[in-house]
């Protein structure tokens, strides 16, 4: 039973989310993922996607895991864990090898693994670690655009890949934190890739789409085209910055500003009654001053517009500003704020929709919440890897942090009495 459980652990700056999935047969007997548990607890010890206090983070993650185990009645022993932060570094790489001389002259999985290892040999800063090596396309004897070369004949194999790197200290800190909870790490997954796994179909990745995950402290994005990763970035701006702006504009506390944002906030001032007012005292403030709802909406709109302008700058770097057929898929807890999709559509000049997890079955309502997209995507990532075992090459099988994770696992276990 333990082998049939797949857990996704989304370590966010404001919330820790755990989604537990189980592999079950569908009507045709084929394996599918069924979500049996989804929990969220407030996050402490995490700042902008990185561990800022290990003790607080261990406590928060432990609480989330305990709730997940109580909800599902199943022990959670391992998890696929998200990793983000604005220190992510992405670069292109190219690998070339001579194909091993087999009797049948076919390219095998070990040849693919060797060429990807060749692509890993890039100039990496001394304080950075490779998180993912994602193949974009292969070339066999000069034939370009091959997605899966296994089984083909050729003597020269090349690969164009995307190398995703992050600070070694960030990997070590999150790894040590999770091992201290007693949980094993199946692998670390870059947050935008996990989110895209949950909200994008293969067809959308082929046509061209951008997934934008607006978290509390950071906003991550990934652009797909022709099924490949075209660009990814993490911006140090999120929903907390909207709260800060409201607090400054209304001269009130962050707690009051957060309640105002969540209960009456709107990113489109025209959708708010011009004469509508409220009292700050209704949201926990000692002030009795009346405030216009439209004024709050204008504050929110200004920050959201700035965020999407920064995203448009990223799209402009790859000549895709206003030129993605599928448009943008928006996820994250900040998407609970009304009107954000409309602002995205106007600023980015692209179709904008709120992304919800697809490809899973569940009776739990939270699974359809866009805030759970990353956690659900992590379980889908794990499910895809387990399903791909023995079925040929899949880039999801390429793990970038296993070696360092194994070292830390042994070191942490030596400290546990």
Helix content range: 25-40%
Oligomer: single chain
- Helical segment count: 11
Q: CATH top level of the domain at 202-356?
A: Alpha Beta
Overall shape: globular
* Unreliable sequence segments: 399-404
Describe this structure in words.
The chain has eleven helices and 19 strands. The relative contact order is 0.16. The chain is α/β, with parallel strands linked by helices and 417 residues long. A six-stranded mixed beta sheet has the order 11-6-1-2-3-19, sandwiched between helices. A five-stranded mixed beta sheet has the order 14-13-12-17-18, sandwiched between helices. Strands 7-10-8-9 form a four-stranded antiparallel beta sheet. It has helices at residues 54-72, 109-120, 168-179, 191-199, 202-207, 239-250, 254-264, 293-317, 340-348, 373-388, 402-415, and strands at residues 5-11, 15-25, 31-42, 46-47, 50-51, 78-83, 89-98, 128-140, 143-146, 156-167, 184-190, 209-214, 219-225, 228-235, 277-279, 290-292, 327-331, 352-354, 361-362. Among the domains are: 89-166, Dna Ligase, domain 1 (2-Layer Sandwich), CATH 3.30.1490; 202-356, ATPase, nucleotide binding domain (Nucleotidyltransferase, domain 5). It is globular, with a radius of gyration of 23 Å.
């Amino acid at each position: 039973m333990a082998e049939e459980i797949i857990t996704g652990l989304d370590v966010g700056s404001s919330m820790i989310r755990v989604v537990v999935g189980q592999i079950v047969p569908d009507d045709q007997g084929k394996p599918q993922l069924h979500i049996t548990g989804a929990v969220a607890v407030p996050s402490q010890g995490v700042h902008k996607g990185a561990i800022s206090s290990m003790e607080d983070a261990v406590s928060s993650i432990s609480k989330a895991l305990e709730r997940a185990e109580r909800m599902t009645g199943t022990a959670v022993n391992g998890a696929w864990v998200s990793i983000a932060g604005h220190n992510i570094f992405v670069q292109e790489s190219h690998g070339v090898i001579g194909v091993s001389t087999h009797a049948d002259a076919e390219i095998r999985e070990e040849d693919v693994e060797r060429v990807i290892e060749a692509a890993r040999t890039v100039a990496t800063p001394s304080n950075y670690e490779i998180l993912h090596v994602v193949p974009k396309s292969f070339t066999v004897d000069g034939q370009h655009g091959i997605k899966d070369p296994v089984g083909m004949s050729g003597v020269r194999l090349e690969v164009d890949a995307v190398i995703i790197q992050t600070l070694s200290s960030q990997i070590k800190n999150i790894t040590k934190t999770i091992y201290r909870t007693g949980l094993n790490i199946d692998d670390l997954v870059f947050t935008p890739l996990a989110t895209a796994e949950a909200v994008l179909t293969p067809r959308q990745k082929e046509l061209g789409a951008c997934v934008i995950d607006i978290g509390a402290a950071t906003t991550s994005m990934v652009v797909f085209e022709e099924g490949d990763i075209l660009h990814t970035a993490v911006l140090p701006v999120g929903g907390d910055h909207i709260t800060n702006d409201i607090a400054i504009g209304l001269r009130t506390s962050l707690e009051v500003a957060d309640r105002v944002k969540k209960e009456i906030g709107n990113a489109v001032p025209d959708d708010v009654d011009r004469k509508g007012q409220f009292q700050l005292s209704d949201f926990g403030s000692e002030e009795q001053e009346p405030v216009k709802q439209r004024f709050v909406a204008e504050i929110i709109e200004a920050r959201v517009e700035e965020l999407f302008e920064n995203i448009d700058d990223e799209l402009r770097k790859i000549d895709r500003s206003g030129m993605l057929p599928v448009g943008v898929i928006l996820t994250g807890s900040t998407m609970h704020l009304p009107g954000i999709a409309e602002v995205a559509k106007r600023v980015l000049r692209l179709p904008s929709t709120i992304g919800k997890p697809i490809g899973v079955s569940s009776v739990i309502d939270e699974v359809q919440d866009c805030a759970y997209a990353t956690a659900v995507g992590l379980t889908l990532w794990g499910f895809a890897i387990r399903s791909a075992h023995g079925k040929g090459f899949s880039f999801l099988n390429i793990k970038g942090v296993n070696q360092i994770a194994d070292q830390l696992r042994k070191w942490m276990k030596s400290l546990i009495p």
